[in-house]
Amino acid sequence: MTTTTPAARPVGVDIQESESNRAVIEAIEADNPEATVRHMPGMVRVQVPGKLVINRESVEERLGREWETHEFQLAIISYFGHIKEWDDDEIVIAWDH
Amino acid sequence: MTIAPKAARKLTMKQRYSALTRDLDWEPSYVPAEELFPYTRFEGIKIHDWSKWEDPFRLTVDAYAKYQAEKDKRLYAVLDGFAQSQGHLSLTDASYLNAMKLFLQGVTPLEYQAHRNFAYLSRHLNGPGPRFASLCQSLDEMRHAQTEIHTLSNYNKYYSGFHDYLHMHDRVWYLSVPKSFFDDALSAGPFEFLIAIGFSFEYLLTNLLFVPFMSGASFNGDLPTMTFGFSAQSDESRHMTLGLEAIKFLLEQDEDNVPIVQHWIDKWFWRGYRVTALVAQMLDYMLPRKVMSWKEAFELYFEQQMLGGLFQDLAFYGIRPPRDVEKAIQEKDYISHQAYWILYQFSHAAAFTTSVPSDEHLDWLEEQYPDTFPTYRKLWDKERKNVENGGRHFVRGLPQLCQVCQIPMGFTEADDPFIQCQRETIFEGERYNFCSDGCKNIFDHEPVKFRQSWLPVHQIYQGNCGAADLPGVLQWYGMQPGDGGEYLGSVDHENWLAWHDMAETTGGN
């Protein structure tokens, strides 16, 4: 096991593959340029080194309607990392230490 | 694209959470806090400030109800569509359902037990934050038990092995593996339960337990299971958060908590990991269309995410990876082969069926496990000859069980596939046997607890399982003809062939 900094260790989310979640995935890709996306049966895994951000406004732009960050609960299957922030405007997943 | 401006919200999410969850708490004045919360001191854990507990989801009752209702609506639409369209006929094969029989018998009852224990935590933890998170999780677990039962009840109309799963869970030998695991957690204190289930089960191992089942369902035409699985997993991300918050909270509250938590991580990693042996054999042997091997799943979900990610984070608090983790890494190359071989030989006493893997399946296994599988392939080649000669192998005796994980003692030493791994401890004049150092270490720390294990084989010999012969015990287990044994020629297999022939004939008209 090699030690790496929190900025380099990957964090990520597994999201159900669906029509409305496509906007969420596209928003994550746009706001996290280092994101890699892997398609698995029925789901999509998005992984980013260090920190993953989901912006409400970016999702709303792509979805064409209002979107509460709470709604992300309908999309998420699993994640790795630590949920650092979940407020009205953004969700942030990152390691602490 | 422009979006109509939002109406100003009266309270932000943070304010709502604070008002609706935290502010509803009060300081007791008629009784001391120790009397109101009597169970949070005896384990030696020291908590100085309960308000430091974080809940990143900032969930309130109204938001919880709104989104859970939406999840259920989506699921039940799928269940109806699948049942109405005779969806069960579009599965890859009836043998796929063996994985789901194991799930219903082994996992669904654990959801209900989790519901019970989180209800207890939602009353007995001192802080309002963890109490509310526990309440939500308690309701989630009840929802999971119910939606799983509803989903799989459709298969019970057509296939064997789905009836009497609760009855079986309490009695059958292979189900004592998950049952004893959870009973161990239920009979622990509230903080140990949080580390056992909230952290080790929900955060460390959840992806290994659930995602393989759900991706397997997706690949094998089982739309309803995939949907309930993903619906349940969306709650699971909240449960993972509760588990992670719990461990960080305990570690930050007092340095004296660190060694206690480290011991629980060591214990519960190994306890949970042993239960995943059932998942390992399911992934590698029970899915007609394969998703990924156990080895690949273990590397992805455990080695990369947990050892490479989480444990580096926890090192900050002085926590190291679980004690026996190296052994689990060694075992990834062979555990599924040994676990399925055990189930294969004893499936005449199970409520699922097994069969010799096809040539194509054996080739796939050899590709996935180039170093180890050639040894096991010889075993299957030999067994295939037995079957051709009319001598399909079932063990007629009863196996020795590990005192802790309760799996029949069929695992070997890591460096030799022909030497059975056996460890023992003599405690107060009695000898106890274990399948691994991991299980022995757990016993040695709590011998008085684990000498009480309800071991199915011992119970049969003691005359507590209905009868002294196999048919009598199977009857006591609640099993019916067709539930277990060989898949080829079984009731499910015959029906499957007949339904598909019938479909072809009708289609030809």
Looking at CATH, which topology of chain B would you report? Ribonucleotide Reductase, subunit A
In CATH, the architecture of chain A is Alpha-Beta Complex
Find the CATH superfamily of chain A: Monooxygenase component MmoB/DmpM
Radius of gyration of chain B: 24 Å
Q: What oligomeric state do the depicted chains represent?
A: heterodimer
Instruction: Tell me the number of helical segments of chain A per DSSP (H or I, 4 or more residues long).
Output: 2
Count of domain modules of chain B: 1
Structural classification of chain A: alpha+beta
The name of the CATH topology of chain A is Phenol Hydroxylase P2 Protein
Number of domains of chain A: 1
Number of helices in the DSSP assignment of chain B: 22
| Spatial gap, N to C terminus of chain A | 16 Å
**SSE series of chain B:** HHHHHHHHHHHHHHHEHHEEEEHHHHEH
Beta-strand proportion of chain B: under 5%
Uncertain runs of chain A with pLDDT below 50, 5 residues or more?
A: none
Structural class of chain B: mainly alpha
Main sheet strand line-up of chain B:
1-6
Low-confidence stretches of chain B: none
Shape of chain A: globular
Overall shape of chain B? globular
Report Rg of chain A: 13 Å
Output the keywords.
heterodimer; A: 97 residues; alpha+beta; Phenol Hydroxylase P2 Protein; three-stranded antiparallel beta sheet; B: 509 residues; mainly alpha; Ribonucleotide Reductase, subunit A; two-stranded antiparallel sheet; 22 helices; 61% helix
What would you say this structure looks like, in words?
The complex is a heterodimer of chains A (97) and B (509). Chain A contains two helices and seven strands; from the N terminus they run E-H-E-E-E-H-E-E-E. Chain A is α+β, with helices and mostly antiparallel strands. Chain A has one domain (10-94): Alpha-Beta Complex (Phenol Hydroxylase P2 Protein), CATH 3.90.56.10. In chain A, strands 2-3-1-5 form a four-stranded antiparallel beta sheet, with helices on one face. In chain A, helix 1 (19-31) packs across helix 2. The longest helix of chain A is centred in the first third of the chain and has 13 residues, at 19-31. Chain A starts with 9 loop residues before the first strand and ends with a strand. Helices cover 61% and strands 4% of the residues of chain B. Chain B has helices at residues 13-22, 33-36, 61-84, 97-106, 108-124, 128-156, 165-169, 176-186, 190-204, 206-219, 223-253, 257-286, 294-314, 325-331, 335-346, 359-368, 373-388, 437-445, 447-450, 456-461, 470-477, 491-508, and strands spanning 353-354, 412-413, 416-420, 423-427, 430-434, 485-486. Chain B has a two-stranded parallel ribbon with strand order 1-6. A two-stranded antiparallel sheet of chain B has the order 2-3. In chain B, helix 3 runs antiparallel to helix 11. The longest helix of chain B is centred in the middle third of the chain and has 31 residues, at 223-253. Chain B is globular and about 75 Å long. The N and C termini of chain B lie far apart (54 Å). The chains are: A alpha+beta (97), B mainly alpha (509). Chains A and B meet through strand 1, strand 5 and strand 6 of A and helix 3, helix 10, helix 11 and helix 13 of B.
